[in-house]
Amino acid sequence: MTIRWIIVLLLAVLGGCSFNTTQPARETGRFVIPEPPADVAASTTPRPGALRIGRFIVTPPFDVRGLVYRTDELRYQADYYNEFFATPDESIRSRVANYLTKAQPYESVILAEGLNASYEIRATITELYGDIRTQAQPAAVLTIHWYLLRTSSGEVLLDREYSEHVLLPDGSPEALMRGFGSGLYRMLNLLVREFPSP
Hints:
The protein is an alpha/beta fold and 198 residues long. The chain has a single domain, classed as Rossmann fold. The chain has 3 helices and 8 strands; from the N terminus they run H-E-E-E-E-H-E-E-E-E-H. Strands 1, 2, 3, 4, 5, 6, 7 and 8 form an 8-stranded mixed beta sheet that branches. A hairpin with a 7-residue loop joins strand 6 and strand 7 (139-150).
């Protein structure tokens, strides 16, 4: 009988200890890519027709909401405490729409699907991560394959891939999102110059 009470007492003490050992909650955050720069130059002669922002796809392992960091040659790690506010594909798609609306490479830019347009731009995002293999010099890495199509025929008018490696002041989520924005807008500066004439 005494042994049984000792066991019960020990379990109660151990249980009490487990309840008392609390660890501080880790801070979490949801982040957005910055808006396009205010100085985006609008085209002086927009091409005729409407440009629809089509489907954007993010390939694995970057198709997660948590920010992804590359820690060595073979290892990537998702930070589920810090994530995109919207899914990565929609985050980038909306910023592309904002940029192209300002740049006006065509008479109008349509974000909503299902509306008629002369052209459609699509994208496959193949790299989207923070490179922290060198702790002293983190970087944002962004690679996107762009397709411009004529909607009436499905003809591919432009097929380009751009990759950006943007050095960051630190490895924080805020710095990483600003790096994604810088890389994205540098790509778009190059892309709109290559849009074919009608």
